[in-house]
Amino acid sequence: MKIAGIDLGTTNSLIAAWTDEGPRLISNALGDTLTPSAVSIADDGAVLVGRPAVDRLVTHPDRSIASFKRWMGSGAGARLAGKFYRAEELSALVLRSLKEDAENQAGGAIGETVISVPAYFSDPQRKATLDAARLAGLEVERLVNEPTAAALAHGLESVEEGRFLILDLGGGTFDVSLLHKFEGIMEVRASAGDSLLGGNDFRDALVSLIARRDQLDPDALPKEDLARLLREAERIKFALTTQDHAAYELALAGKDRTGIVTRAEFEEAAQPLLRRLRAPIERAVADSRVNPHEIDQIVLVGGATRMPMVRALAARLFGRFPLAHPRPDHIIAMGAAVQAGLMARDFALKDVVMTDVCPFTLGIAVRDTTAPEGRAMSPLIERNAVVPISRSGRYFTVDDNQTSINIEVYQGENLRPAQNIKIGDIRVRVPAGPAGREAIDVRFTYDVNGALEVEVTAVSTSQKESRVFRNAANLSAEELAARFKALAEIKSPPRDQAENRALIARAERLYAESLGADRERIKSLLGDFEQALLDQQLRDVAGLRTRFGAALDGFERSWS
Amino acid sequence: MGLTPTVDERAVLRAYAKKLRETRPEDDPEGFQRLLAAREQALAWRERVPPPPEAFADDEREPKEAADLGRRPFRVVMGAEMSAPPKDEPHSGGFHTPDWRTHRPTPVLPPPEPRAPPADDWSWRAPRVDFEPAPPGAAPDAVAALRARWLALNREGDGVFWSLETWEEILRRAGALAILERETVRRELVALFAARLPPLAESKGHPRPEIIAVLGRLEEEFDLLRQPVGSKRPSALNLSGLADWLNAVTATREVARRRALGSAAYRSESSIPLIPQEDRAVVLGSRELIEDYDFLWRHHRRRWRPVGRIAWRATIVPSVVSANLDAPRLAGVVLALDFATFVLAGLVLRALDLDRPFWDHPWLHGAEAVAPVAVLLAARLAAIFLWPRFAIQSAVRRVRRADLAGLALPAARKPVLSRRFGDRWWVRPLVISGGLMDLLALGVVLAVFGVITGPSH
Fold first, then answer.
1. In this structure, are residues A362 and A380 in contact, taking their beta carbons and an 8 Å threshold?
2. Structure confidence by residue, pLDDT tens digits, A229-277
3. Other residues' Cβ atoms within 10 Å of the Cβ of residue A521
4. Is B115 on the interface with A (CB under 8 A)?
5. Is the dihedral angle over the CA atoms B205, B210, B211, B213 positive or is it negative?
6. How many whole angstroms separate alpha carbon A241 and alpha carbon B293?
7. Residues of B in Cβ contact (< 8 Å) with A375
């Protein structure tokens, strides 16, 4: 029985197992540790996850999808091959593929799993993640905040005492956490973030830069062209990490476009994004009430922190160089595995205790004549309170002969309830009487998993109403069961075919991106390969695959 | 926690760490919260002792240019805010608070403990030096240069002061500063803007776009409503004038977003009429309508199911009693009363031993008498089924009208938004005629009853 940690990211997902020597990453069927969070439905109805799905984004944009983590908990999803999939289901497919990789490697079932989520994920988004895990058939005991996981991965190997600022810029989310480690205790002092900011936005900034230069409207481009443009922008983004400028060459809207993007131009285009990076950093530092001088280390996590401008921003803000792991995108999964080990109270981790915070304010709407529109938010659990926490408040009736009180639960920092996120409501009955005579006690309990339980008690009758919040956008138990069945019927391709499928998807993508003679050559190579597979020349299939892959590598090299 | 009164943070944390191993947060949430509260008390005690002089040097700094702040009364606000003595902080936690005044020990400060240098096991993470962080010595000058820039700007008239390009440049340069310098800039700009902004009420629903633009940019850069960085105390910034303006910024942007989106902003993906969240409280007003709307949303896949639930308590032609359309629950009662009247009439007729149901009675001639009643009931049922949708759609139209008129401030939107469906000129006559029809029907029944009962006596 293995215990494992999963980093379910916007662009890439990873799984790491907790072993006697510590966390160890597990590679997928293609031999990579990073499995792109992309899903594609093949023509025969099988599901492709990971790199082949990314390749098929170009060739089959109507059957493939990526970057769906942003929709978690909102009820949104995508239509693939004529069928609607919610973000939870798409994530479940990715999780299932990771689980299969791990089971394949461990040779047995995977037991307790910890999945990391951005610290700024709201309650419905966390629930959606748990739903996805359930759909994938995973036994998820606990969610862990990503920066916390990053700190766990770092914290174990070094430093006895200190305050660390973790900046985690992933593909789609940005998280900041300030941690205090002392006497073997890891305490999250504050966290903040932006759940709609990540490496993808930097890529989009490049896309609009190129589009502006070539007078194109990215929204008006055909899907295939847009996918090609996105891929090219991604490539330029990577190139600009190490080079001062990068050239691009691609055919869009029937014309060849070429040009050079310099790093300075990219940084200029990304200015608004850098501004959005600064606000959560400052908010976390301010909330923790820690003087910036007292911060001992600034740790960069997440693939997007490789960009020099992000490092420069951190360096400028704090007047010192941040720490950067050579593989900043591996850290979260390792930390999640550490957390899994922690939970199992593995001997090696016996002495580390974690305390975490709730990153947003939770409260209820009350009538308040001094507030605008007469309604105000009455906070019960304040932002960055240490969890698990339970707080209660007493509220009174406001109308004569009022017979019931409706408690609307909100999450957010604004005084106006309408500007915050509504989590749900509860209604309790109270005996009629003059205004202010009847009272209720509202108790909020926020547990270590980030689930909120609200209990309301009418004081005079001792009548209790209690609810664990489940947003309307989340799936109900029956729906979950139905979808679990539906997903179980979708088959993944056999593992030994995964590599073949990936190669075919890649060849198709290269075909779509190339022109003329190259196309013909790729087509014939692909034809030969598929014929060989059909003829069941299984003895030679490995050699065939190597040759085919090498040929495709040759094509890609000749272009860049 | 087993502590003697102490000002040593480390001792407190050590004791806390020891206890925490016995009360793990996941096993004993309540014990953990008690422990946490105890720690906060111990640390709060420590904070009551005056901090070493260098800790809050930033808070005490007076701007050198205080003398030439220009014609705006901004110096006063800023001076007051910056040199205000720290107020007694209310104790956090809400648990038993010992009386600090009697128990406070003589503040004996231990010699400042040198912080241990961070353990250096980070060699493999050696940074690549391919960019320039701001040299630490240059920063104060950068702040001074920026300050001179905005003080000069403050002497100009409104036309020059509220220009986005100038502020864009200033804030851009502020973006390159280190975190504590940025905090200084933020604090001084907040004071400047609080003094410079005109009262929001003067704008009558249409705040000046250039102010909104500049303020929005400032908010993006500095997140104005958060606590100050590097201070142990909550914010002492005077935000009273600014907070309303910041709400106006949010509202204006939201209105602009909706106008750009067009009709799609008022329709969900499944074509449910969408009332944007921030307008719901004003537009929906009555509790019944909010419930209808929520229900419609929750069950939007089954289009007619919500109507079935709503039906029993909503009608458009209620009798005089329920003329207020925002309280349609009464209408259900009226409907029930009407039915009861008919049934009662039938029973009375039966009791009169006429040997047949009342609608078969020769004086009623079947269909002719039943027809008006049937029409009345049919109209009523149709109204019942259409009412919720009708009301919600009319609410959405009102929101849209306010948006198209560019009304951003809640106060200006309110008259438009809160004009209820029931306030329309043609609804009242309809309601009254509905009531009259009710009375008429009742009259017919009573007349028939009278005609029947008359001759038999």
1. yes
2. 888 899 999 999 999 999 988 877 778 888 899 999 999 999 999 999 9
3. 16
4. yes
5. positive
6. 51
7. 281
